[in-house]
Write a structure and sequence with these properties.
There is one protein chain. The chain is of the alpha/beta class and 242 residues long. Helices cover 31% and strands 21% of the residues. It has helices spanning 13-25, 44-54, 62-67, 78-89, 93-100, 130-137, 218-228, 232-237, and strands at residues 2-6, 30-33, 57-58, 105-108, 111-114, 144-147, 154-158, 165-166, 171-173, 179-183, 197-203, 208-214. The chain contains 8 helices and 12 strands. The longest helix is centred in the first third of the chain and has 13 residues, at 13-25.
Length: 242
């Protein structure tokens, strides 16, 4: 099975469409979105509709949760708060209903999918270092766990009786004894100094995981944000991937 896994769309329809096209070009058979369809950008309703149409499974992320008012934006920085309040005013009833149907975690065969960490899916725990990774490995039982939330792609491998290792490569074939924790990066707002959209291809037959970067028209997205009055900080960061 070829899985296409993406996360953190953040209301960037141009980037999302580019990733969907890349998934098609790579022969993806099942599409999974790990959440945060909305926030930061101004294509909230369009991105929800794209997910509903093209994703086989979609999870809820923290920005989605605030967008549908399951929780408040009190912990958001001022830029994120302004964007999510804009989002709340621009979601259709159909999009709201779809977002309210999304689960926090999805498991299939030996694969776990979650927005933040399997440690506590509804608490939006960040996996940013090896200690966080150790906690995550303790809370899923299969071979693979795919997460998002940090906007930075990374593959972490774990073997029995060994400390998990952060890998330098973005393509990896696992050994029989290994388990993987994979952050699939962000489609709509990468933060690893690479402005290209990011998604992950999993081939369960070859046991290969590959993080794929996709060019998209950043200027087009920025112009829509500018017209909607989004903060300059949110607009400018897209061009530098931070």
């Amino acid at each position: 099975m070829l899985y296409g896994i993406c996360s953190d769309i953040h209301s960037n329809a141009t980037a999302f469409e580019a990733v969907l096209q890349s998934m098609d070009e790579n022969g993806v058979e099942k599409r999974i979105c790990l959440g945060d369809l909305v926030g930061y950008g101004v294509d909230a309703d369009e991105c929800v509709k794209l997910a509903k149409e093209h994703m086989d499974v979609c999870l809820i992320g923290n920005h989605d949760s605030v967008g549908i008012k399951y929780e408040s934006s009190v912990g958001f920085n001022p830029y994120a708060k302004q964007a999510i309040e804009w989002t709340q005013k621009h979601l259709s009833a159909e999009s709201l209903a779809y977002m309210k149907s999304l689960p926090y975690i999805f498991e299939e065969n030996d694969i776990t999918f979650v927005h933040a960490s399997p440690l506590s899916p509804a608490d939006w725990v960040y996996v940013t270092d090896l200690e966080d990774a150790l906690d995550a490995f303790d809370h899923f039982v299969g071979t693979y766990c795919f997460v998002g939330h940090t906007h930075s792609p990374v593959i972490v491998a774990s073997r029995p009786m060994a400390i998990p290792k952060i890998l330098d490569e973005y393509e990896y074939v696992i050994a029989d004894t290994e388990r993987l924790l994979v952050n699939v990066g962000s489609v709509g707002q990468p933060r690893d100094r690479d402005p290209r959209a990011c998604w992950c291809l999993l081939d369960t037959d070859t046991r290969c995981v590959r993080l794929i970067r996709v060019q998209y028209d950043v200027l087009q997205t920025q112009e829509r944000m500018r017209k909607a009055g989004m903060p300059a900080f949110l607009i400018e960061r897209l061009a530098v991937g931070r």
